[in-house]
């Protein structure tokens, strides 16, 4: 890690001609915020459907110009472009902006520039998998300390709205924000400087957007730039530690590791079922502070999977960096309730456990999910997004009782199974309609034995069959419910 001085970029949005790219949640939020600050805002979006038309009418009533379809080009006189996260860096709009010498930033950058002098600190979280769970754990721990906080950013709450709402109408200002940041958002946030931040893991994902694994990792690593207290990394994932080493941080900022094993100095880890801190203690060479028991992590949701223990350690590290007491870490983890479709226990039927991890939309997430259970009938498949499955199958083969494949790219998984787990029974459902899920669950039940887990961890995106991973998970839960109704 190297150090540098603070960055201070003035907002100066009033009177500026600003183009907002995209009519999604963050784009609409940024457009309204900037128009409210006196900017001349034009929103451009390549779509021209009913949804875009309705949003355009709402924004037009607020003084925002909207150009749809073929009008999604760079307006003359643009002084700044604010992009929605999904727009690729090689978009023609951005090439036009570069040619005109116009900066392109994202909504996170706008929010950062809009902070007031007494703004809440930001604790940032990124990683290929586990971001939302970790941010929500962190917010729960901070709240247990009595701090006014909120989970914001990529988790669904536009951070621009939160920053602009600070202390308005007599509302209590936030003390600290738990901020989930995607690689897309970090790419477009050059001046972001968090109090402390964590990169949970790095695995291939979104490479079609970033162009290469190196660029993807570099964008994740931006979260460490300018950290003032702690850069939290995953001891088991060297790529995250490498990003810390490469980061420019404030003088005195520390590298803090988290591990599922016994922690060394300046690390948090696990000793005999106890989460312990050897980073934020007076004598980290000889002392360790107990924080919580593993059983404190979302009690009532079943035994936590290893990757959720890791998420809890990362959240605890960020909270401890902010000065949170050990008791608040324990209380916050106890109060935390996982979101649906993330290792969600659905039912136990005739000795077989049914688990919905529809959120496992890439191989890295699926690997963590498969590692949590001993004997598994795996339901997998969907849109591969360019992924390969050999490493995933190799690591998981010994746990597989059987596999049921669904979705457009299921052949890629079937071929990996043939190479690395040829003795595992495979049911290949040649269909991509939503009705495939009940059949998949019935086939998985047929393959399962008492003590097994039927696990939906698709390792693929859902859009070939479902609107999103939530709908896919709901279909799984409904299908399991049908088993219960039919057999009992």
Structure description:
By secondary structure, the chain is α/β, with parallel strands linked by helices. The chain is built from 17 helices and 22 strands. The chain has a 9-stranded mixed beta sheet with strand order 8-9-7-10-11-13-14-15-16, with helices on both faces. Helix 5 packs across helix 12 (326-335). The protein is globular, with a radius of gyration of 23 Å.
Strand and helix map with partners:
Blueprint: E1 2-3, E2 17-21, H1 25-36, E3 40-45, H2 50-60, E4 65-68, E5 80-83, H3 92-99, E6 103-106, H4 107-114, E7 121-126, H5 131-144, E8 149-153, H6 159-164, E9 176-180, H7 183-187, E10 196-199, H8 207-210, H9 213-221, E11 230-234, H10 238-246, E12 248-249, E13 254-258, E14 267-271, E15 274-277, E16 289-293, H11 306-321, H12 326-335, E17 344-349, E18 352-356, H13 363-370, E19 376-380, H14 390-396, E20 400-405, H15 410-420, E21 426-428, H16 436-447, E22 453-456, H17 469-487
Parallel strand pairs: 1-12, 2-3, 2-5, 3-4, 5-6, 7-9, 7-10, 8-9, 10-11, 11-13, 13-14, 18-22, 19-20, 19-22, 20-21
Antiparallel strand pairs: 14-15, 15-16, 17-18
């Amino acid at each position: 890690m190297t150090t540098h001085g603070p960055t201070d970029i003035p907002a100066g949005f009033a009177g500026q001609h600003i183009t907002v790219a995209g009519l999604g949640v963050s784009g609409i939020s940024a457009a309204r915020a900037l128009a409210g600050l006196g900017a001349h805002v034009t929103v451009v979006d390549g779509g021209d459907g009913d949804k875009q038309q309705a949003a355009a009418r709402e924004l037009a009533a607020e003084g925002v110009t909207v150009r749809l379809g073929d009008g999604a080009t760079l307006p003359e006189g643009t002084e700044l472009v604010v992009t929605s996260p999904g727009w690729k860096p090689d978009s023609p709009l951005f090439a036009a902006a570069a040619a005109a010498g116009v900066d392109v930033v994202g909504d996170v950058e706008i929010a950062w520039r809009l902070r007031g002098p007494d703004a809440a600190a930001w604790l940032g979280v990124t990683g290929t998998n586990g971001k939302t769970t970790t941010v929500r754990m962190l917010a729960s721990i901070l709240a247990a300390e009595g701090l006014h906080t909120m989970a914001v950013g990529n988790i669904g709450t536009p951070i621009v709205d939160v920053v602009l709402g600070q202390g308005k109408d007599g509302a209590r200002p936030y003390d600290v924000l738990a901020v989930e940041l995607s690689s897309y958002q970090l790419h477009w946030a050059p001046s972001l400087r968090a109090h402390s931040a964590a990169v949970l893991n790095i695995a291939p994902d979104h490479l079609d957007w970033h162009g290469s694994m190196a660029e993807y990792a570099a964008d994740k690593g931006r979260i460490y730039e300018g950290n003032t207290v702690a850069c939290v990394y995953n001891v088991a994932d060297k790529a995250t530690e490498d990003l810390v080493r490469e980061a420019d941080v404030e003088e005195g900022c520390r590298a803090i590791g988290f591990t599922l094993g016994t922690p060394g100095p300046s690390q948090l880890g696990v000793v005999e079922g106890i989460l312990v801190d050897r980073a934020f203690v007076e004598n980290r060479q000889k002392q360790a502070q107990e924080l919580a028991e593993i059983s404190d992590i979302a009690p009532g949701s079943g035994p936590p999977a290893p990757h959720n223990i890791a998420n809890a350690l990362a959240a605890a590290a960020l909270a401890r960096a902010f000065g949170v007491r050990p008791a608040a870490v324990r209380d916050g983890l106890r109060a935390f309730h996982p979101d649906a479709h993330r290792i969600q226990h659905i039912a136990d039927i005739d000795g077989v456990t049914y688990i919905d991890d529809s959120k496992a939309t890439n191989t890295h997430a699926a690997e963590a999910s498969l590692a949590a259970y001993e004997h598994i009938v795996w339901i997998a498949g969907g849109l591969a997004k360019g992924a390969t499955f050999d490493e995933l199958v190799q690591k998981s083969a010994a746990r597989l009782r059987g596999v049921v494949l669904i979705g457009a790219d299921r052949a890629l998984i079937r071929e990996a199974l043939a190479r690395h787990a040829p003795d595992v029974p495979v049911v290949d459902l040649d269909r991509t309609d939503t009705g495939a899920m009940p059949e998949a669950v019935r086939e998985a039940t047929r393959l399962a034995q008492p003590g097994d887990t039927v696990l939906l961890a698709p390792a693929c995106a859902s859009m070939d069959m479902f609107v999103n991973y939530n709908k896919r998970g709901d279909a799984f839960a409904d299908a399991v419910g049908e088993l219960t109704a039919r057999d009992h």
